[in-house]
């Protein structure tokens, strides 16, 4: 069982910047500060001792290997230089162990150059979390790594408090939706948790109360999450789903895209993402009319626009811009064909978009600070039914594609607007 934070403080060693308290950079406490341990002197005995001392089992085999020997410092640069010839680097501490027990280890200060590679370790009881099959790292089926195996989480009692913990742990903002099974492809392998019941304040999902998941759950009940940092796209106001104004769903609302950097490379990525072929034309857009403005800069080979460089609501980058538009090669306008609801080759999915319907009946999902919302109201009870997307403006019959899911609007938790 991994040690609590207080016990690690007393032990004077911890692991940071990993997926859990059982993996990451090795840090040792020197007087009043934590310092990364020197990687050049790290070995299997130290790795085993640290993992066992932290209650994380032994060290994984790959973690016991010492990092490559650091290169010697370069000679002084030739020519005119402003560097102080007498400048020196503060030394980094090293953790030296004569055996695989913590009692056989000692911390040696200033043992290595401080600009070297720090020691890292992954222990046998390391845990990790990920979202799978949602089109980005911030949406999809919830999976946990335990005892070396990735497994899913059952959707019994799954709600926004649980989903908020997932999103925050993955640095994906807050939860837009906590989804029951069958919204994403069912998983394989073990089911690690059932009846998860988070308060919403836990650091890790595995800190939440719950039960082992193998007894009553099947993979058709795999829980899913959509977080606020997930991006999905649509084209509106054109003849079909492959032509129109570019809109991105981000942080719970639909936003326009700035045309100040809307070139062929950006439009190509979007057309391919939507299953609409490649870019044919980039018509001049209209003034921005939605909540926010997104800026993208791509090289044209990215799988989605979210893999490009992007900035949200940056007034400098979007100064004097219009809302970007695109015409993709799969649009029926180019082939004089009747207008279908979905471009050929795109598999539609059914989602809730209550913000797109005046007076819609979709539930508002609140942030974790709004504790008055009943838990049963945060889970869509009929989400497994197929539902048609809300009607688009005349002339644009549009059903959302898998990478373009129109998630319901959720206000940010307080302090994250």
Automatic annotation (TrEMBL):
Domain spans labelled SRCR: 13-124, 129-228, 233-329
Amino acid composition bias (Polar residues), ranges on this chain: 398-408
Annotated S-S bridges: 198-208, 298-308
Biased composition (Basic and acidic residues): 362-379
Stored InterPro entries: SRCR, SRCR-like_dom_sf
PANTHER family: SCAVENGER RECEPTOR DOMAIN-CONTAINING, T-CELL DIFFERENTIATION ANTIGEN CD6
Protein name according to UniProt: T-cell differentiation antigen cd6
Pro residues bias spans: 67-77
Keywords per UniProt: Disulfide bond, Repeat, Signal
Residue ranges of the region described as Disordered: 62-84, 350-417
């Amino acid at each position: 069982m991994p040690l609590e934070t207080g016990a690690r403080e007393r032990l004077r060693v911890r692991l940071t910047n990993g997926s859990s308290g059982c993996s990451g950079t090795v840090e040792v406490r020197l007087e009043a500060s934590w310092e990364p341990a020197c990687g050049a002197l790290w070995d299997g005995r130290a790795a085993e001792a640290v993992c066992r001392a932290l209650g994380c089992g032994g060290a994984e085999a790959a973690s016991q290997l010492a990092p490559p020997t650091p290169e010697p410092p370069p000679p002084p640069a030739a020519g005119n230089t402003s560097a102080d010839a007498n400048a020196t680097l503060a030394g980094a501490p090293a953790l030296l162990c004569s055996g695989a027990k913590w009692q056989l280890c000692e911390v040696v200060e200033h043992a290595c150059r401080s600009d070297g590679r720090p020691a890292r370790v992954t222990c046998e009881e390391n845990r990790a979390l990920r979202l799978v099959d949602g089109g980005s790292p911030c949406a999809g089926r919830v999976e946990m790594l335990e005892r070396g195996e990735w497994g899913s989480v059952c959707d019994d009692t799954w709600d926004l408090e649980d989903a908020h913990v997932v999103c925050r742990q993955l640095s994906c903002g807050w939860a837009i939706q906590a989804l029951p099974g069958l919204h994403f492809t069912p998983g394989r392998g073990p089911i690690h948790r059932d009846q998860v019941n988070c308060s919403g304040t836990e650091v890790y999902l595995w800190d939440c109360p719950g039960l082992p998941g193998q007894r009553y759950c099947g993979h058709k009940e795999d829980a899913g999450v959509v977080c606020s940092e997930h991006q999905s796209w649509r084209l509106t106001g054109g003849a079909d789903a492959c032509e129109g104004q570019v809109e991105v769903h981000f942080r719970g609302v639909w936003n326009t895209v700035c045309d100040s950097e809307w070139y062929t490379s950006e439009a190509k990525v979007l057309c391919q993402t939507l299953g609409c072929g490649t870019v044919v034309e980039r018509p001049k857009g209209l003034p921005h009319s939605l909540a926010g403005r997104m800026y993208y800069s791509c090289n044209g080979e990215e799988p989605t626009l979210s893999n490009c460089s992007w900035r949200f609501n940056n007034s400098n980058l979007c100064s004097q811009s219009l809302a970007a538009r695109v015409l993709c090669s799969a649009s029926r306008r180019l082939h004089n064909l009747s207008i279908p609801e979905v471009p050929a080759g795109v598999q539609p999915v059914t989602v809730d978009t209550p913000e797109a319907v005046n007076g819609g009946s979709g539930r508002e999902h609140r942030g974790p600070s709004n504790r008055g919302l009943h838990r049963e109201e945060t889970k869509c009870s009929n989400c497994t039914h197929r539902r048609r997307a809300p009607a688009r403006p005349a002339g644009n019959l549009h059903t959302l594609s898998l990478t373009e899911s129109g998630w319901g609007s959720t206000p940010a938790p307080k302090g994250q607007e």
